[in-house]
Amino acid sequence: MRVGVLTGGGDCPGLNAVIRAVVRRGVTEYGYEFVGFRDGWKGPLEGSTMPLDIAAVRGILPRGGTILGSSRTNPIKVEGGIERIEQNLQTLGIDALVAIGGEDTLGVATTLTEHGFHVVGVPKTIDNDLSATDYTFGFDTAVGIATEAIDRLHTTAESHHRILICEVMGRHAGWIALHSGMAGGANAILIPEVEFDLDEVIGWVESRFKASYAPIIVVSEGALPKGGDLVTKDTTLDAFGHVKLSGIGDWLAQQIESRTGHEARTTVLGHIQRGGTPTAFDRVLATRFGLNAISAVKDEAWGTMVALQGTDIVRVPLQAATGVLKTVPLARYEEARSFFG
Ligand code: F6P
Questions:
Q1: How far is CA 297 from CA 118, 167, 168, 317, in A?
Q2: Does 332 sit in the ligand 1 pocket, CB within 6 Å?
Q3: Ligand 1 contacts CB of residue 124 (under 6 A)
Q4: Which domain holds residue 282?
Protein backbone atom coordinates (compact mmCIF):
# COMPACT_ATOMS: atom_id res chain seq x y z
CA MET A 1 0.00 0.00 0.00
CA ARG A 2 1.29 3.49 -0.92
CA VAL A 3 -0.24 6.24 1.18
CA GLY A 4 -0.16 9.98 0.47
CA VAL A 5 -0.24 12.44 3.40
CA LEU A 6 -1.13 16.14 3.22
CA THR A 7 -1.73 19.03 5.64
CA GLY A 8 -4.08 21.81 4.50
CA GLY A 9 -5.44 25.15 5.76
CA GLY A 10 -3.92 27.26 8.53
CA ASP A 11 -1.08 25.40 10.23
CA CYS A 12 -1.45 24.25 13.79
CA PRO A 13 0.87 22.92 16.53
CA GLY A 14 0.74 19.12 16.47
CA LEU A 15 0.64 18.57 12.69
CA ASN A 16 4.12 17.07 12.71
CA ALA A 17 3.18 14.75 15.58
CA VAL A 18 0.31 13.37 13.45
CA ILE A 19 2.57 12.88 10.41
CA ARG A 20 5.17 11.10 12.56
CA ALA A 21 2.61 8.72 14.10
CA VAL A 22 1.02 7.91 10.71
CA VAL A 23 4.40 7.07 9.21
CA ARG A 24 5.83 5.23 12.23
CA ARG A 25 2.88 2.84 12.60
CA GLY A 26 2.35 2.62 8.83
CA VAL A 27 5.94 1.57 8.10
CA THR A 28 6.77 -0.54 11.14
CA GLU A 29 3.45 -2.29 11.77
CA TYR A 30 1.84 -2.42 8.30
CA GLY A 31 4.82 -2.24 5.92
CA TYR A 32 3.34 0.72 3.99
CA GLU A 33 5.20 3.24 1.84
CA PHE A 34 4.45 6.95 2.11
CA VAL A 35 4.52 9.98 -0.17
CA GLY A 36 4.35 13.48 1.30
CA PHE A 37 2.22 15.93 -0.65
CA ARG A 38 3.42 19.50 -0.41
CA ASP A 39 1.25 22.45 0.61
CA GLY A 40 -2.18 20.94 1.17
CA TRP A 41 -4.37 20.08 -1.82
CA LYS A 42 -1.90 21.91 -4.06
CA GLY A 43 0.35 18.81 -3.74
CA PRO A 44 -2.02 16.25 -5.29
CA LEU A 45 -3.28 18.88 -7.74
CA GLU A 46 0.19 19.64 -9.09
CA GLY A 47 1.85 16.30 -8.33
CA SER A 48 4.20 18.08 -5.92
CA THR A 49 5.69 15.57 -3.48
CA MET A 50 8.51 14.96 -1.02
CA PRO A 51 9.95 11.76 0.48
CA LEU A 52 8.20 10.64 3.66
CA ASP A 53 9.81 7.79 5.55
CA ILE A 54 10.98 7.07 9.09
CA ALA A 55 14.10 9.21 8.60
CA ALA A 56 12.00 12.16 7.40
CA VAL A 57 9.85 12.12 10.56
CA ARG A 58 12.68 11.70 13.05
CA GLY A 59 12.80 14.52 15.64
CA ILE A 60 9.66 16.33 14.49
CA LEU A 61 7.34 15.45 17.42
CA PRO A 62 7.83 18.72 19.36
CA ARG A 63 8.20 20.95 16.29
CA GLY A 64 5.40 23.39 15.36
CA GLY A 65 4.25 23.95 11.78
CA THR A 66 4.25 21.14 9.24
CA ILE A 67 7.18 19.57 7.41
CA LEU A 68 4.82 19.11 4.42
CA GLY A 69 3.89 22.78 4.12
CA SER A 70 0.30 23.99 3.89
CA SER A 71 -1.96 26.16 1.73
CA ARG A 72 -5.59 27.07 1.31
CA THR A 73 -5.72 25.68 -2.26
CA ASN A 74 -9.23 24.52 -3.16
CA PRO A 75 -9.01 21.95 -5.98
CA ILE A 76 -12.81 21.85 -6.33
CA LYS A 77 -12.70 25.46 -7.56
CA VAL A 78 -10.02 24.65 -10.14
CA GLU A 79 -11.26 23.69 -13.62
CA GLY A 80 -10.67 19.92 -13.98
CA GLY A 81 -9.13 19.84 -10.47
CA ILE A 82 -10.60 16.50 -9.41
CA GLU A 83 -9.50 14.81 -12.67
CA ARG A 84 -5.98 16.23 -12.25
CA ILE A 85 -5.76 14.83 -8.71
CA GLU A 86 -6.99 11.44 -9.94
CA GLN A 87 -4.38 11.41 -12.70
CA ASN A 88 -1.53 12.41 -10.35
CA LEU A 89 -2.48 9.82 -7.74
CA GLN A 90 -2.55 7.16 -10.44
CA THR A 91 0.85 8.20 -11.83
CA LEU A 92 2.36 8.15 -8.33
CA GLY A 93 0.73 4.80 -7.50
CA ILE A 94 -1.11 6.20 -4.47
CA ASP A 95 -3.75 3.86 -3.00
CA ALA A 96 -4.99 6.07 -0.16
CA LEU A 97 -4.73 9.58 1.24
CA VAL A 98 -4.54 10.83 4.82
CA ALA A 99 -5.81 14.44 4.81
CA ILE A 100 -5.07 16.46 7.94
CA GLY A 101 -7.06 19.68 8.07
CA GLY A 102 -9.98 21.77 9.22
CA GLU A 103 -13.44 22.34 7.75
CA ASP A 104 -12.13 23.40 4.31
CA THR A 105 -9.50 20.68 3.82
CA LEU A 106 -11.84 17.99 5.12
CA GLY A 107 -14.69 19.44 3.03
CA VAL A 108 -12.56 18.72 -0.06
CA ALA A 109 -11.80 15.25 1.36
CA THR A 110 -15.55 14.65 1.68
CA THR A 111 -16.14 15.60 -1.98
CA LEU A 112 -13.25 13.40 -3.15
CA THR A 113 -14.67 10.47 -1.15
CA GLU A 114 -17.97 10.95 -2.97
CA HIS A 115 -15.96 10.62 -6.22
CA GLY A 116 -14.58 7.26 -5.05
CA PHE A 117 -11.19 8.40 -3.68
CA HIS A 118 -9.79 6.50 -0.68
CA VAL A 119 -9.44 9.22 1.96
CA VAL A 120 -9.20 9.23 5.76
CA GLY A 121 -9.36 12.57 7.61
CA VAL A 122 -7.67 13.94 10.73
CA PRO A 123 -9.27 17.01 12.38
CA LYS A 124 -6.99 19.99 12.88
CA THR A 125 -7.65 23.59 13.87
CA ILE A 126 -6.63 25.86 16.71
CA ASP A 127 -10.22 27.18 16.58
CA ASN A 128 -11.62 23.85 17.95
CA ASP A 129 -14.74 24.35 15.81
CA LEU A 130 -15.03 20.93 14.13
CA SER A 131 -18.09 18.90 15.10
CA ALA A 132 -17.97 15.24 16.15
CA THR A 133 -14.70 15.63 18.05
CA ASP A 134 -14.48 16.97 21.60
CA TYR A 135 -11.17 18.69 20.83
CA THR A 136 -8.91 19.33 17.89
CA PHE A 137 -5.16 19.39 18.50
CA GLY A 138 -3.58 22.85 18.43
CA PHE A 139 -6.40 24.35 20.49
CA ASP A 140 -4.75 23.61 23.84
CA THR A 141 -1.50 25.22 22.66
CA ALA A 142 -3.31 28.32 21.36
CA VAL A 143 -5.25 28.70 24.63
CA GLY A 144 -2.01 28.39 26.63
CA ILE A 145 -0.33 31.11 24.59
CA ALA A 146 -3.36 33.43 24.83
CA THR A 147 -3.67 32.83 28.59
CA GLU A 148 -0.04 33.72 29.16
CA ALA A 149 -0.55 36.91 27.13
CA ILE A 150 -3.61 37.84 29.23
CA ASP A 151 -1.67 37.26 32.48
CA ARG A 152 1.00 39.64 31.19
CA LEU A 153 -1.53 42.24 30.08
CA HIS A 154 -3.10 42.36 33.59
CA THR A 155 0.05 43.71 35.26
CA THR A 156 0.84 46.36 32.68
CA ALA A 157 -2.84 47.45 32.43
CA GLU A 158 -2.93 47.99 36.19
CA SER A 159 0.32 49.99 36.20
CA HIS A 160 -1.09 52.41 33.62
CA HIS A 161 -4.79 52.33 34.58
CA ARG A 162 -5.62 51.37 31.01
CA ILE A 163 -8.13 49.11 29.34
CA LEU A 164 -6.22 46.42 27.47
CA ILE A 165 -7.97 44.41 24.78
CA CYS A 166 -6.61 41.09 23.62
CA GLU A 167 -7.83 40.03 20.15
CA VAL A 168 -7.56 36.28 19.60
CA MET A 169 -8.28 33.99 16.64
CA GLY A 170 -11.67 32.37 16.11
CA ARG A 171 -13.42 33.09 12.86
CA HIS A 172 -16.85 31.63 13.60
CA ALA A 173 -16.35 30.12 17.04
CA GLY A 174 -15.19 31.75 20.26
CA TRP A 175 -13.54 28.74 21.90
CA ILE A 176 -10.08 30.31 22.19
CA ALA A 177 -11.53 33.53 23.65
CA LEU A 178 -13.79 31.62 26.04
CA HIS A 179 -11.09 29.32 27.40
CA SER A 180 -8.22 31.84 27.55
CA GLY A 181 -10.53 34.56 28.90
CA MET A 182 -11.79 32.29 31.69
CA ALA A 183 -8.31 31.00 32.48
CA GLY A 184 -6.86 34.53 32.42
CA GLY A 185 -9.62 36.18 34.46
CA ALA A 186 -10.81 38.57 31.72
CA ASN A 187 -13.45 41.15 32.66
CA ALA A 188 -15.28 40.63 29.39
CA ILE A 189 -15.12 37.93 26.72
CA LEU A 190 -16.68 38.71 23.34
CA ILE A 191 -17.32 35.84 20.93
CA PRO A 192 -18.83 35.47 17.43
CA GLU A 193 -21.76 33.40 18.72
CA VAL A 194 -23.22 36.20 20.89
CA GLU A 195 -23.47 39.77 19.52
CA PHE A 196 -22.20 42.17 22.17
CA ASP A 197 -23.85 45.32 23.47
CA LEU A 198 -21.29 48.14 23.57
CA ASP A 199 -23.12 49.91 26.44
CA GLU A 200 -22.93 46.74 28.50
CA VAL A 201 -19.20 46.35 27.76
CA ILE A 202 -18.65 49.96 28.85
CA GLY A 203 -20.58 49.24 32.05
CA TRP A 204 -18.21 46.32 32.80
CA VAL A 205 -15.19 48.55 32.13
CA GLU A 206 -16.46 51.29 34.48
CA SER A 207 -17.26 48.83 37.26
CA ARG A 208 -13.79 47.32 36.99
CA PHE A 209 -12.16 50.74 37.37
CA LYS A 210 -14.43 51.47 40.38
CA ALA A 211 -13.00 48.34 42.02
CA SER A 212 -9.52 49.85 41.42
CA TYR A 213 -8.47 47.29 38.86
CA ALA A 214 -7.76 47.75 35.16
CA PRO A 215 -10.11 45.95 32.74
CA ILE A 216 -8.95 43.26 30.34
CA ILE A 217 -11.23 42.37 27.44
CA VAL A 218 -10.69 39.27 25.32
CA VAL A 219 -12.33 39.46 21.91
CA SER A 220 -12.52 36.86 19.11
CA GLU A 221 -11.59 38.22 15.69
CA GLY A 222 -15.10 37.23 14.51
CA ALA A 223 -17.05 38.97 17.32
CA LEU A 224 -19.81 41.38 16.27
CA PRO A 225 -21.38 44.40 17.92
CA LYS A 226 -25.19 44.22 18.15
CA GLY A 227 -26.68 45.15 14.79
CA GLY A 228 -23.18 45.82 13.38
CA ASP A 229 -21.03 44.19 10.72
CA LEU A 230 -17.83 42.16 10.86
CA VAL A 231 -14.85 44.50 11.30
CA THR A 232 -12.12 43.49 8.82
CA LYS A 233 -8.89 45.03 7.58
CA ASP A 234 -8.98 43.44 4.18
CA THR A 235 -11.93 42.37 2.05
CA THR A 236 -10.11 39.95 -0.30
CA LEU A 237 -11.36 36.36 -0.12
CA ASP A 238 -9.31 33.17 -0.01
CA ALA A 239 -10.05 30.12 -2.23
CA PHE A 240 -12.67 28.96 0.26
CA GLY A 241 -14.43 32.35 0.34
CA HIS A 242 -13.17 33.54 3.75
CA VAL A 243 -12.21 37.17 4.41
CA LYS A 244 -9.08 37.92 6.42
CA LEU A 245 -10.31 38.87 9.87
CA SER A 246 -8.80 41.19 12.52
CA GLY A 247 -9.70 44.76 13.38
CA ILE A 248 -12.47 44.31 15.96
CA GLY A 249 -9.97 44.89 18.81
CA ASP A 250 -8.87 48.29 17.47
CA TRP A 251 -12.47 49.28 16.75
CA LEU A 252 -13.43 48.40 20.32
CA ALA A 253 -10.51 50.34 21.80
CA GLN A 254 -11.52 53.48 19.87
CA GLN A 255 -15.15 53.18 20.97
CA ILE A 256 -14.30 52.57 24.63
CA GLU A 257 -11.68 55.32 24.79
CA SER A 258 -13.97 57.93 23.25
CA ARG A 259 -16.89 56.98 25.50
CA THR A 260 -15.10 56.53 28.85
CA GLY A 261 -12.14 58.90 28.56
CA HIS A 262 -9.86 56.04 29.74
CA GLU A 263 -6.99 55.05 27.51
CA ALA A 264 -7.65 51.75 25.69
CA ARG A 265 -5.12 49.73 23.66
CA THR A 266 -5.28 46.50 21.70
CA THR A 267 -2.90 43.56 21.39
CA VAL A 268 -3.60 41.31 18.40
CA LEU A 269 -2.10 37.87 19.09
CA GLY A 270 -2.49 36.69 15.50
CA HIS A 271 -0.20 33.93 14.27
CA ILE A 272 1.73 33.76 17.55
CA GLN A 273 -1.20 31.54 18.66
CA ARG A 274 -0.46 29.09 15.84
CA GLY A 275 3.32 28.98 15.84
CA GLY A 276 5.85 27.15 17.97
CA THR A 277 5.95 24.01 19.98
CA PRO A 278 2.73 22.10 20.87
CA THR A 279 1.72 21.41 24.48
CA ALA A 280 2.01 17.87 25.86
CA PHE A 281 -1.80 17.51 25.54
CA ASP A 282 -1.68 18.41 21.83
CA ARG A 283 1.31 16.12 21.17
CA VAL A 284 -0.52 13.17 22.74
CA LEU A 285 -3.83 13.91 20.99
CA ALA A 286 -2.10 14.41 17.63
CA THR A 287 -0.09 11.20 18.07
CA ARG A 288 -3.23 9.20 18.92
CA PHE A 289 -5.04 10.71 15.91
CA GLY A 290 -2.14 9.73 13.64
CA LEU A 291 -1.96 6.14 14.93
CA ASN A 292 -5.71 5.70 14.54
CA ALA A 293 -5.84 7.36 11.11
CA ILE A 294 -3.39 4.87 9.63
CA SER A 295 -5.31 2.02 11.28
CA ALA A 296 -8.44 3.37 9.54
CA VAL A 297 -6.52 3.17 6.25
CA LYS A 298 -5.62 -0.44 7.04
CA ASP A 299 -9.32 -1.18 7.69
CA GLU A 300 -10.26 0.63 4.45
CA ALA A 301 -12.58 2.92 6.43
CA TRP A 302 -12.74 5.43 3.57
CA GLY A 303 -14.63 8.66 4.13
CA THR A 304 -14.12 8.58 7.88
CA MET A 305 -12.34 10.93 10.22
CA VAL A 306 -10.72 10.10 13.55
CA ALA A 307 -12.22 11.99 16.48
CA LEU A 308 -11.84 12.37 20.24
CA GLN A 309 -14.97 11.46 22.18
CA GLY A 310 -14.43 11.49 25.91
CA THR A 311 -11.01 9.86 26.18
CA ASP A 312 -11.52 7.49 23.25
CA ILE A 313 -10.44 7.93 19.64
CA VAL A 314 -13.33 6.91 17.39
CA ARG A 315 -14.15 7.02 13.65
CA VAL A 316 -16.94 9.27 12.37
CA PRO A 317 -18.10 10.02 8.81
CA LEU A 318 -16.24 13.01 7.34
CA GLN A 319 -19.55 14.82 6.79
CA ALA A 320 -20.27 14.69 10.52
CA ALA A 321 -17.27 16.90 11.15
CA THR A 322 -17.67 19.42 8.37
CA GLY A 323 -21.45 19.75 7.93
CA VAL A 324 -22.05 22.05 10.90
CA LEU A 325 -19.43 23.96 12.86
CA LYS A 326 -19.11 23.34 16.60
CA THR A 327 -19.76 26.73 18.14
CA VAL A 328 -19.75 27.76 21.81
CA PRO A 329 -23.08 26.78 23.44
CA LEU A 330 -24.90 29.64 25.18
CA ALA A 331 -24.72 27.81 28.52
CA ARG A 332 -20.90 27.80 28.35
CA TYR A 333 -20.90 31.55 27.63
CA GLU A 334 -23.29 32.15 30.54
CA GLU A 335 -20.79 30.46 32.89
CA ALA A 336 -18.09 32.88 31.78
CA ARG A 337 -20.43 35.89 32.17
CA SER A 338 -20.50 35.36 35.96
CA PHE A 339 -17.05 36.98 36.02
CA PHE A 340 -17.66 39.95 33.72
CA GLY A 341 -17.34 43.50 35.03
O1 F6P B 1 -7.24 28.10 10.79
C2 F6P B 1 -8.09 28.90 11.50
C3 F6P B 1 -7.51 30.27 11.68
O4 F6P B 1 -6.51 30.18 12.64
C5 F6P B 1 -8.58 31.29 12.03
O6 F6P B 1 -8.80 31.45 13.39
C7 F6P B 1 -8.05 32.54 11.40
O8 F6P B 1 -9.09 33.41 11.01
C9 F6P B 1 -7.36 32.02 10.19
O10 F6P B 1 -6.92 30.74 10.50
C11 F6P B 1 -6.21 32.89 9.73
O12 F6P B 1 -5.67 32.30 8.62
P13 F6P B 1 -4.49 32.86 7.74
O14 F6P B 1 -3.26 32.48 8.44
O15 F6P B 1 -4.61 32.16 6.45
O16 F6P B 1 -4.68 34.32 7.66
A1: 8, 39, 36, 14
A2: no
A3: no
A4: 2-137+278-322
